Amino acid sequence: MMMKKETYCIKVNLPGGVVSAGDLYELLLIAENAGADAIRIGNRQQLFFCIDATNLEDMEMDMLRGGIDYEINTDEFPNIISSYVTDAIFNTESWIKEGVYKDIFDLFNFTPRLKINLVDRNQAFVPFFSGNFNFVTSQVSNYWYLYVRFPKTTDIYCWPTLIYSEDIPALSQTAENIILTNKALFYDRQNIDHQKFHELVTTSYDLVNQPISEPLKLPDFQLPYYEGLNRYMNNKYWLGIYRRNELFPISFMKDVCKLCLKNRIGQLYTTPWKSLLIKGIPDTDRKEWGDILNKYRINVRHASNELNWQLENLNTESLELKQQLVREFEAYDLRTYRLSFAIKMQPKTGLPGSIIIKKQKAEVFDIWHSHDFNPNSKEYIIYKEGVAKDDLGGYLIELCNHFYEILSDWNLSPPTSLIESQASQTQAETHYVYQCQNCLSIYDKTYGDGAGVAAGVDFETLTDYTCPTCESSKDNFIKIAQGVMSME
What we know:
Helix content is about 25%, strand content about 25%. By secondary structure, it is an alpha+beta fold. The two termini are about 40 Å apart.
């Protein structure tokens, strides 16, 4: 009987989701020499490749000679993610540019153990609050909002002052050390003392303070189409590449790096959507890029309803379920604009999404959605519980259609921003919704009901009300507190 070979998964962080063509080429050679034939991009803009155990020792020697940090079958040190990839492509109105990103990255003289996000507020491509320390640009040049999401909780704390760019690395290290050395106070706890946390950080590190003059306002979520060869500034082009199976052949990636080096394109970018992006392609070089795509039969025009998914890294079950659901969406010709989906096979996976498919047990799932269908929200409502795998597609199609019905009621704009909503919830009483006991549909007065009830109408005032999904009477609804799901 043939023994199954033991394999190792190698993870390499790319701080900010950027890597030089030369450095990437060297890493590809090491992976290829170790027997890998493809690499993967992770949802925190990192790289993965898998090798047989027999090649591990040689690979480790090559990594040591190349001065490349890596992890084997672990994720103890999460990658720093950033919206650097969006600069000049998906947003052009911000003060943060290439030089500012690089200056901040260069000041990180430690390897973070908690997740750090550096995100421009004018874009919606990179998640805002999927990190533990979430720095978001303010309207003041070189100053950032900081939102701390304490590990293993949904507790988000808005730092009371703006943070200076050069303070970000040292502040992150100080705050991380305080959290990890005081887990009884700040790690996996229901009630966090924000004032105590602030005092410990500020007494340990002298910050350059700038008052917050106005609250953070986030853009509505509209995922840009991130594939293909596209024109942008100064008659240049950018190329986005997505892979349905998440695999980027090493031979293809080597040719990409060679062409970048030949044509003096210094950097490549990875995205949180597990895709690759190359900027700065001159019009004269378009044919060469087309030739590479032709050579490796790379398709760069997938349907939008396939591109707006967040999956756990290296998870075949998630990928297969996504592919099943996308096929159903395609058959239905489903519109998913302004929505995103996440599949959580593990109990605590930090994946943002407008709609979350969460595994309950084998072949059975729960469906959640954010209270305003904004993937940057941390407040989620149960839509359906205990859904069989084969029934997921139908319920998701129903929920998407419901979203567009309430979007019309919102006049194409959610009623409040994420931060305004969070602020009001901390000051108000517990928010209650009403759930049908027969089909588990939710009535929330924030949105009303897509079957004719306008937003803002109290459930108690409804007369002759029936469930829009199963037509059960109002008596079959029960009052429940709004659900909160940990996204860690």
